[in-house]
# Entry
Amino acid sequence: MSTLYNPKMTRRESLKRMGSMTSVVMIGGIAVACETLEPEAMVVDPSSHWPDLDFAVISENGYGTDPNMISPTTPWPRTLTSAQLDQVAVLSDIICPQDDRGPSATAVGVPDVIDEWVSAPYSSQHRDRVQMLNGLQWLDNEADRRFSCSFVAASDAQQIEIVEDIAYRDLGDVPEFEHAVQFFSRLRRLVFGGYFTSPEGIEDIGYIGNVPVVGDYPGPTDEAMEHLNRVIADLEEF
Amino acid sequence: MASFEGFEYDVLVVGSGAGGGMSAHILTEAGIRVLLLEAGRAYDPVTETPMFQQNHEAPLRGVSTSDKNFGYYDATVDGGWQVPGEPYTEADGTRFMWWRARMLGGRTNHFGRLVPRFTPEDFNMADRDGLGENWPIDYDEVAPWYDRTEKLIGVSGTNPGLEDTPASADGVLQPPPKPRVYELLLKAVTDKMGIPAVPMRRAVITRDLGDRKACFYATGCGRGCSIGAAFQTTTSLLPWAQKTGNMKLVTDAMVKEVHVDENGQASGVTFVNRLTNEDIRVDADRVILAASACETARLMLNSKSAMHPNGLANSSGQIGRNLMDSLGADMSGYIPALKGRPKYNEDGYAGNHLYIPWWDNEGQKDGSLNFTRGYHFEVDGGFGSPGMGVASHVDGYGKQAKNEVRDLFGTSIGLSLRGEMVQSENCYCEIDEEVKDKWGIPVLKFHWKWSEQELNQVAHGLKWGKKIIEAMGGIVDNPDATPERAIKAGGQIIHEVGTTRMGHSPATSVVNQWGQCWDVDNLYVMDGGVFTSNPHKNCTLTILTLAMRNATHLAEEMTAGEAP
# Structure
């Protein structure tokens, strides 16, 4: 299942991304190059079952208080390594697979959205960055512990076995998985958020606004009104 | 007559939002020449509004950041809860949030366009509960100006005939859009509860009005409106004023001081050119301040002189006092019966089509409620453009979770309480003598404390909001909310008013009923600072209306040669 994800970004953006890697990622308070972000290089507390890696706030500029709203651009470079992008891609399609109503998360570029997100120089995205990078590392540690391989290298069934342990909020009560459940919950929001805000996702979910209406707003369709009237009829008396 | 760069003018106006924009329009139409100073940059909604741009085109899918607090596409530029280099401070234990927009048109570019009127009783609430002060004017005096303002700016809505919704004159209002499914469901249950749900009055036109086009029911009004359907001064009052040839507009002009002559009368201002960091002094025969309630108070407090040692026109000591915001608390829930409901275009004109006005004046009069001022509920929900929070309530993964997101689309309901606070000696702003902004101007320090009145009101709102959502068959997201936790910070609703209030007496108020300073009769305040109380009805319509009335009065006096 180890699909190699092809980022939907230009070569220029790629180069920008590469150039930024050596300066922005901190591990345990020490700046390291992203390319060296390998399990062996990480300081993992074996008792916590969470990598607890520290990452410095991205120091790139944001888009500022007066950005171009007509033709938006994102000024900061992306920072995920290709290995991390692959891992995000695998997870994205586990969370949001192709089905009969819409494409998969990777087909609409969700890993790019997440890369842009965790690379942003804003505080809430920084919190996500710390959680995501730790979560990705946790998944690799967990796959290594269970199957002696990375998460991406694990089989589909092995990946699902791990995901099943962390994909539901009530599993957060299991101390062993507490951090990982929180991570997965946040990742799920980002993946579905990225998917359903994409043009394909908007069509999939059935949002049919953002089009100019000529004349008066027509209001609910007959079908919508029939449904509403049934809902009202079914309401309990109070 | 004063002049600047060869332009001669009768009146200098500070600020281009609701108060300044209306003042400039009225005066220039009367043939009076106006120099308008705006602290922010020039801004043109026709070319700058992101109409139809979607979340996926923006960085971070358009979510809020510290650069754009209301999301990437919000009209506010160079502003928000913080303005770089222009801080404010809070007293110990105070939480106050101050939204500023440094742009032409100010906050009118992004406001919610909710424009309910004050009621007759709203002008005399001290008679009901002995709290605060009555206004020096009454509803009968203001009503014709409400009509004129509504007709001018374009308001859609109805006259439902409720105590909390005074009627406009015939022919003033444009028709409102049809309610949506979730609003009709709400109305079905509130009707049975004896609680009204009626069309929200909004400054969004549904019929062409002059050069402005009727709403085409796409693009959130907070982005601004390139076709002028959603009212903002930058597509109406300001271009109209410029068209007369009687106005010179200077942007990036941050006024730091109002000067007085040897008689203590206003004689001009000094502003910082924000692009060159240069101080520029200009003369004026008359000055109108409309920089927003707190910014105007700051300017007056910072304009000290031998004649005005406590700040300009502040012999009452009331400048900065009586600061009020609306109080806010949000409730939300999800309606299982709306799962998978039939899709249709539910954008409408972006904000509420229906809202819940205050319904229990009787309970307050007979003493069965433990708070004396009212509130309303704004309603939201629907099939909005999907955002990054679309899967907030979904668990698991895979096809099942994906289907769950689809099913939950359009099932949420939100009720936002917007209430009237009672003015308090604990809520005010003053100059922080220790902190200056990047222009060297001393900044404001805020003091704030909610009283039992507000907490009791929020407790009532939480109880009834929960009842309403549950009556819709809904599940409340935050059933255990407490008033202390649910109430928003002071300033967070962005309805701050009262800092230069009008009144009957120079001893207890800053301006008279015409917005004219008691102490300096060629100095006027025409923003929300003049409010004597802050009814729960969103403040912009009344700012516009008072500015129209008072600028008209000034123009008449000037034309008759009677103005100071």
About this structure: Strands of chain A lie at 26-27, 30-31. The two ends of chain A are 54 Å apart (CA to CA). Confidence is low (pLDDT under 50) at residues 9-48 of chain A. The CA atoms of residues 143 and 151 of chain A lie 5 Å apart.
